[in-house]
Structures are given as C-alpha cells and as structure tokens.
Amino acid sequence: MTRSIIALGMSALVLGSAVSGCAVQSRSVMPAVANGGDAQAVKAAAKAAKRAQRALAKQDAAAAVGFAEEAVRLRPRDAGYRLVLAQSYLKTGRFVAARAAFGEIARGIAAAHGCTADVSIDAGYPVTFCDPRATAMMRDVAGTLSGERGWSQMPAPMMGGEDFSYVLRDIPGAMAFVGVAAVGSDPRTNPPLHNTRMTIDEDVMATGIAMHCTLAERFLERGFD
C-alpha cells in the first residue's frame, strides 16, 4: 500500500487529502455517475466553465458560482469544473460549500483510480479584520504627516494569511502598508515583498516610524475618540 499527500491552498483554508490504497497519478476524472454526456451537454458545460473563469477574473464571484454550478450540473464527472466551483465558493465567502467541493474533488479522483480519500481541513489563519476606529485614526495620522497623498485605500481586500490576524482577533487595531517604492519606479512592476530583487526607499522608514509613534501617542491620550 502506498500513501500520497495532496495539498491545496484555499486562501484562509488548507485542504489536506490523504489518498491511500494504490499509487495514483492526477487525472481530471470523477467516478462514474449519470452525466447526460451528449455532445450538447459537453459543449454547454465547457461554455459555462469559461464564463465562470471570466467572472472570477473580473472579481464577480457571485456570477462565477452560477456558471460553475451549471457546468458541474451538466458534467459532474469533470474535476476541473468542480475546482472552478470550489474557487468560486471561496471568493464569495461560502467556506462550508468550498470545503465540501474540495472534498468531493479529492474523493472523486481517488475513486476513479480505485482508491479512497480521507479529507481533513484546517481552517488556518483567521481573517485580518481592521477595526474601523483604528483605520480612521491611521488615515488621519497619515494625512497629518504626509498630506492628501499620505493615504490610499486598497481597491479590494487581500486574501493572504497574516500572523497579525491573531492579534487583531483579540485586540482592536488595524493593519496598513507603508509604500517604499523608489522614486521614479513603477510599484506595479517592482519586485514584490520578500523577493530577492526587492529594493526600498530607506528614507521612507522615517515616515513609518513617525506613523507608529504618533498613533501610539494619540491612542494613549484619547483612545479611539
């Protein structure tokens, strides 16, 4: 008996699937079930899946769910369509449905190879929740120190895990980024954080220190008022 471990990143979720019983290779196949496998259904399912992927690319997760569910309804044996559905559930915050979908994928692929899959899911990092009062204070301090350009709102939340989430879960606060791109460079194409080619404008460190000190002084003086 051989044992294989499959790990899938799920934003705030992590899926661990232990497949045992035989040596397997990854295939986009689910166990045999009724699927109305005529050519029309195949074409319609592919079209729905593509529309779901386009909706995800446009950050329209609600529409993606509808298209992906239609693709899976038409072709329930296709693990690729089920994966798109699971990703769509994640984007809409339907984590229970996403867990179930990822579990079905793992068990289905295992069953297609005569194996069984035991699926366990670790919820992982909590959401990085920024308290509105702390966020407002940070915005005000940034404006005081750097003027109107001192604060920029992110257009969409980031889904990455963060250790500081555990602090914010118990203590009201907020998390913000300090822009450190060198003058004249393009932040959109600069190497990202933790990259070996990342460079920073070290003069900005003084602004970050000032932000921390001013926030601490203001909170000690009057709290979030």
Question: Layout of SSEs?
Answer:
Elements: E1 3-10, E2 13-20, H1 39-57, H2 61-74, H3 79-91, H4 95-112, E3 116-122, H5 132-146, H6 164-170, H7 204-222
Helix pairs in contact: 1-2, 1-3, 2-3, 3-4, 5-7
What does this structure look like?
The structure is a single chain. This protein has 225 residues and is mainly alpha-helical. The chain folds into two domains: 3-122, Serine Threonine Protein Phosphatase 5, Tetratricopeptide repeat; 132-222. It has helices spanning 39-57, 61-74, 79-91, 95-112, 132-146, 164-170, 204-222, and strands at residues 3-10, 13-20, 116-122. A three-stranded antiparallel sheet has the order 1-2-3, covered by helices on one side. A hairpin with a 2-residue loop joins strand 1 (3-10) and strand 2 (13-20). Helix 3 (79-91) runs antiparallel to helix 4 (95-112) and helix 5 packs across helix 7. The longest helix is centred in the N-terminal third of the chain and has 19 residues, at 39-57. The radius of gyration is 23 Å and the shape is elongated. The relative contact order is 0.12.
Order the strands across the largest sheet as they lie in space.
1-2-3
CATH-derived architecture of the largest domain? Alpha Horseshoe
Number of domains: 2
- The name of the CATH topology of the largest domain is Serine Threonine Protein Phosphatase 5, Tetratricopeptide repeat
Main structural class: mainly alpha
User: What is the typical, i.e. mean, pLDDT?
Assistant: 82
- Largest sheet descriptor: 3 strands, antiparallel
Beta fraction of the residues? 5-15%
